Amino acid sequence: MYTDNRFIEFTDIAIIGMSGRFPNAYTIEEFFNNLKNEKESIRLLNDDELKEAGVSEELLKNTSYKKYGSVLNNIKEFDNEFFDFTPYEAKITDPQHRIFLECVWEALEDAGYIPNKYKGIIGLYGSTSMSSYLLSNILKSEDVFKEGINYPILIANDKDYLCTRASYKLDLRGPSMTVQTACSSSLVAIHLACQSLINQECDIALAGGVSITVPQTSGYLYKEGGILSKDGHCRAFDDQASGTVKGNGCGIVTLKRLEEAIEDRDTIYAVIKGTSINNDGANKIGFTAPSIQGQAKVIDEALALTGISPNKIGYVETHGTGTPLGDPIEIRALSQAFQSTDKKQFCAIGSLKTNIGHLDAAAGVANIIKTALCLNNNVIPGSLNFSTENKQIDFENSPFYVNSSTKELEDEELNYAGVSAFGIGGTNAHAILTKAPSITKENHRLENYIFIFSGKNHKTLKQIEENLSNFLVQKEEMSLIDVAYTLGVGRDDFSVRNFVIGKTKEAIIEKMSSPSFKNEGNQKQMSELSYIWKLSDDQDKEIYRELYANVSYFGKTLNVISTEIEKIFGQKVTSKQLLGISNWEDTSISEEGKDILSTFANSYALAKLLEKFGLQPDSIYCQNKVQTYVAACITKSITLENTLQLLQKHTINEEVEIADIKSIKNQRYLL
């Protein structure tokens, strides 16, 4: 349960899901572990790789040619059947589009929301780099334009269709647009997604970007004064800095209004307090050059929007390209935006580009993901390749210092952080993030937990089971009831299924490791779902009490019903009375009437809980009139208020005919 929601502003946006692909990291967890361990994922490419990428012998001998790259693994892999692509469609589709689509799906799953189960509106904002796959692969075929414009190839590679095709494939019905502002694109996409949520245009917004150069292992030609590094390393803010290296990767964040995220008990990585964007205009030495005034203003605006004092910002994830021109300008701009504080060297800065290179259109979202994980884990990873301060930067008299080694922090040491992304062409973006609200653990304990798995085929199912097993092994602390809930409600229902039941994490891991479990997984055609209510007995009452004690949604529903009963009957009725935990106070309701109310209230609360879990019955079999009232109520054939009014007649022995209930579609009764 989140406890400090008194600080919530209506503009606060929660990051409730994340997904990414980065060099040497297939998951967000691997990505952050690499950062904490100060791993540099830019590597030296061998001549065989370079030749296979089409690099000529002449270029290899050029002393200005640099054999370095930041390589994303497995870009050729794609489950085309899962996303309903034909083999041909998958073949002609830019890997940027394919991986972006995968990460959008994974970010939704990480948040625990699936489009066909979620009743709200989901929007999508994204960015991508130019399609080098189109240039280096597709256009080399002589058959591409034999019959004029080839629309399948256009759709599969052009920036315009990045988000709209993902929205089509995943049935996302909110705003969907591609955002292109060069290096700041994905942070601008996040800004627009936040605005869309604030303006109520959607209920969940996904935002991010992707940048993959094909081929990845082609190195680059160094040019003095350019953005690319002289020695194959990014040395942000160091005196030996000479530029960056082109990186490859993808990142997506799932966003939701904070107040609703808290209400829905979503996992929250961090909170976006405010974002700002602007453009330099002509106030700089050239179109591609950065501007101190433009950068300072966008940071100042973000701080002003949040009302947060600069001296509370403990970390800034900089744009940090490691260029002799860009680094000093960025620090001067930050210092100008922080000029209201006299404190010196209190705010750590770092640059992700020292780890994985420059992700271009995906750089901003990668910075957001890193910073959200810093806040979530109380860790600031070291910014690499820093030894001597850039002589053009006066760090000693600024609020900033380069965090050159990983720092483990106390809980309250880092509460606010800034994130920058600045695009060639002058579009600047800055975001202010803060920690997720603190939570108190709710003591939910059930006799057994059921973990449900489903996939489109057996191979996918086994991968899902393996992923979950690894997650259970790696995570020391977790809520089994939350895992069970997410697997049951926050995942799509596919035809190949399996499940495991256990009392503890260790028991579940043991069962999932057994040969019998690994060989299971059945493919069955979904049939009609029917509810069959039996006559209530003491065992049922015990189940209802356990649900009330451990499943908050059941308890909340029962509390609502007891309040409504009190309104209709004019007498004090509590949930504990309906559960048989507390004695009824002096009341005119007969013993039979109490049993009727208890049966109705508990059955209704259970039906609503199953509905929350995504179960919608095609038919309901009832064994008495009270159960018929429940069936009528949950199918919205009659309101809860009118149902209780009918029950009031029943409890005072007035004759109630089934005709009192309006016709109910798709229900069958055994009365």
TrEMBL record:
Keywords: Acyltransferase, Fatty acid metabolism, Lipid metabolism, Multifunctional enzyme, Phosphopantetheine, Phosphoprotein, Transferase. Residues 10-435 form the Ketosynthase family 3 (KS3) domain. InterPro entries: Ketoacyl_synth_AS, Ketoacyl_synth_C, Ketoacyl_synth_N, PKS_assoc, PKS_Beta-ketoAc_synthase_dom, PKS_NRPS_Biosynth_Enz, Thiolase-like. Gene3D superfamilies: 1.10.1240.100, 3.40.47.10. GO terms for molecular function: 3-oxoacyl-[acyl-carrier-protein] synthase activity; fatty acid synthase activity. It is an enzyme of class 2 (transferase). Pfam families: KAsynt_C_assoc, ketoacyl-synt, Ketoacyl-synt_C. One of its GO terms (biological process) is fatty acid biosynthetic process. Its EC number is 2.3.1.41. CDD domains: PKS. Belongs to the thiolase-like superfamily. Beta-ketoacyl-ACP synthases family. This is Polyketide synthase subunit. The lineage of its organism: Bacteria, Bacillati, Bacillota, Bacilli, Bacillales.
